[in-house]
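Course assignment 3, question 2. Fill in each field.
Student: A.L.
Task: Predict the tertiary structure for the chain below.
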Amino acid sequence: MTERERLSNVFGFDYGIECFVPEAKRKYGYFCVPVMMGKSFMARMDCKSHRDESRFEIKALHLEPEFATRRAFASVAHDLVRAIREYALFDGCKDVIVKETAPEFTRVMLRSQLKLAS
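Answer field:
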């Protein structure tokens, strides 16, 4: 059994790295990684560190259905922002920018939380 099959069987999470998929056919991004909250997969994030600019870019964040309502996301936004900030600093980046999110309301909430955390 492959790791992808195991993720799907155990967690119900279908995951694939899209860097090998032609850009026009990508759904989540070039190097999208799964994001866990507790024991659940909460999102898929395509991100990049621009160390020379001290900037961590979230190119895209796609919430899983369980977290895709305002109420559900609001309950975990603070923890997600803390984890993003910690990782960005670990990776040598002071600033965090958010480009695209799905659903759209997530971007506004994330940006607001990021400002509070700075």
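Instructor remarks: The CA atoms of residues 68 and 103 lie 7 Å apart. The beta strands are 32-37, 40-50, 55-63, 95-102.
Grade: pending
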